Structure formats: C-alpha cells, structure tokens
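Handoff note, outgoing to incoming analyst
You'll be picking up this chain. Sequence as last confirmed:
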Amino acid sequence: MFNRPVFPALFFKRFLILASLLLLSACYPTYNWRELPVADGLATLAFPGKVDTVKRDIELAGMPVTFVLTTTEVNDTVFSIGWAQLPLQSTSEQRQAAQAALVESLAASMDQPVPEIAMTGEMFRLESARDGKALAMVARVLVHYDVAMRVVATGPPELLTEEVSQNFIRSLELK
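Most recent structure output, in case you need it:
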C-alpha cells in the first residue's frame, strides 16, 4: 500500500480551516443593525450592536426626571439614545426648556456653540478635537408628547460617516 506522510495532510487541513475562518470573519458585518423599542415603546431605533441601558435620576430644566440611556459601541463609535419622561403636567415652555437643556449639554460636551437647526428636532453634526484627535457627533434632540429624547452618535469623523450616522439617526421611528 501507499505510505503517505501525515504531516502535509494535517497541515493542509489546518490551513483550510484557518482560511475558512478568515473568510468568514471578513464577511461578518461591522454594523449588525437591530431595531429595538425605546422610550417605553414610544419609539423604535436601529442600533448597530448589542445595547446596554442605565438609568439615573437627574434634574432637567428644573424638573426631576429619570434619565434612561441606552448605548452600544462599535469601532470606537458610540451610538445612544437618552430619554426622560417629563412630568405629565409639564407646560410647553418646560418641554422646550428640556429640549434646550439636552441640546446645550451636547454642544458643551463638544465645546461648540449650539447650532440653530438643533432646536428644530432635525439631525445636526458637530466636530471638535480631543487630546489631539478629531471627534464628530451627530445628534437629534426632540420632545415627543412629554418625553424628551436625544439620539447621538459620537466617534472619529472617518468612522462616523454620513451613511452610518444617517442609518442610525434616521432610523428613529416615533409612535
């Protein structure tokens, strides 16, 4: 019978397995979009990865609220929605003040002035530098009924492209 060396056959099998794994990892999408209910079911939003949620009691525009923050991070880019149920008896002025407070906190975190479009509930983009590195933020801040929401993506400008930011921000569906 034939006496074939075992080493080349084992090497070849291991090479095929490694090559297959590399091909599969190349096919795995960077962003694994999934639509989730947010804001106690008042809206849905598509996140590009598995999310974590935390709650914290804060004061927003002089009103005590519980702020809920749901986030995920993909490739040094953070995607989040933060929302707070405003008091049911809140006035139109208080809702507008809550929206302004959320917008101002985002602008301050980027050391930028508040863009005019930010208070319209439309998407806006801010850029700055932190520790010598460029940072971009795309956000949308609005009040829907009596729920104040801020949808935010933050990361390096080369990763937070227009396509990625629009996929995230524009996926917000209000009910």
